[in-house]
Amino acid sequence: MSANTTNKPIETDAVIIGAGPCGLFTVFEMGLLDMKCHLIDILDRPGGQCAELYPEKPIYDIPGYPIISGQELTDRLMEQIEPFDPAFHFQQMAQSLEKLDNGKWRLTTDEGTIFDTTVIIIAAGGGSFVPKKPPIPGIEEYEGTSVFYSVRKINHFEDKKIVIAGGGDSALDWTVALEPFAKSLRLVHRRDEFRAAPDSVGKMRGLVSEGKMDFSMGQISALNGTDGKLESVIITDKEKNETEVPCDCLLPFFGLTMKLGPIADFGLNLNENLIPVDTEKFETSTEGIFAVGDINTYPGKLKLILSGFHEAALMSRQAFKYIYPDARLKFEYTTSSSSLQGKLGVDDDKDKKQA
């Protein structure tokens, strides 16, 4: 997995925008046909909505699994695509797209990562996740310098006076992860109950009891600072009492919302923020750009994960024709093809069992 950026273009067969279930299964279908994939996702982990919004919520309509959680489905898909060694570029958003003279696409992310790719597959669900901003007056002045909605580099927060706001997994996970690096750290949440994993909550409470960090019940109501640099935050409790706390880095984690983002500028003839595709190749109005999963639309479309899996399988066959224009595409079954089983490492597993 990669989160590094470079100004030198990365050459690849395909770039997949979105690392949710449909994006991950696309890697599998592309890999069976010897196509290398890089994935971009605004989140800091794979899984899309399944992993971020309902990791523990049961899903009942995945073939072969009477019940499976969003996180378990993500874990299974990651295990399934491991033989194809996909490259992940997390916490990045596809920002711009241009057609090169050699026929390839050049896609650039908001972090400056550049890809030169033959095909692009949009598997962005309902769009890109963007952070929900707290209603704190003047917060925009500090964004990017003192206020951050994600952690991209831990060392950026080393020896800082950090305040984290929120009560979900992201807030608690980063509280535990950043505590060893911070000069001081305080978690702020409106109540003493959390939506995060019990283990993370327990670790946070342990750090508080050891005096390594602080916890305040209340909400951040105001920011103090100059020239975009925070100096302190005001915390207001339910009795309207105010407390000023030194702070030079504020991390608000109040969840995510979804917007189509720069994809809307890719010239794909959008229909109500969805991307129309055909039902043979799941190709958009632009040759070489495909869309699978909830982001696309066509007559009879069902917004189901299993539908996205089906779309990825058909899409990959057209992608093959662009990537290997002189090659003959042969249909094979994974159950009987020794070639496909070799790619999946099945032969190695058999050898290990026989040994």
| Name of the CATH first level of the largest domain | Alpha Beta
CATH homologous superfamily title of the largest domain: FAD/NAD(P)-binding domain
Give the fraction of residues assigned to helices. 10-25%
What overall geometry do the principal axes of the alpha carbons give?
A: elongated
User: Class by helix and strand content?
Assistant: alpha/beta
Largest sheet: 7 strands, mixed
Indicate the radius of gyration in whole angstroms.
23 Å
At the third CATH level, what is the topology name of the largest domain?
Answer: FAD/NAD(P)-binding domain
| Number of helices, where a helix is a run of at least 4 consecutive DSSP H or I residues | 8
Task: Tell me the number of structural domains.
Answer: 2
Q: Helix and strand succession?
A: EHEHEEHEEEEEEHEHEEEEEEEEEHHH
Assign the CATH architecture of the largest domain: 3-Layer(bba) Sandwich
Strand content: 25-35%
> How many β-strand runs?
20
Note the gap between the termini.
Answer: 32 Å
pLDDT below 50 for ≥5 consecutive residues: which ranges? Answer: 1-5, 349-355
What is the mean pLDDT? 89
Notes on the structure:
The protein is 24% helix and 27% strand. With 355 residues, the chain is an alpha/beta fold. Strand 14 (229-236) and strand 15 (242-246) form a beta hairpin. Mean pLDDT is 89; it is low at 1-5 and 349-355.
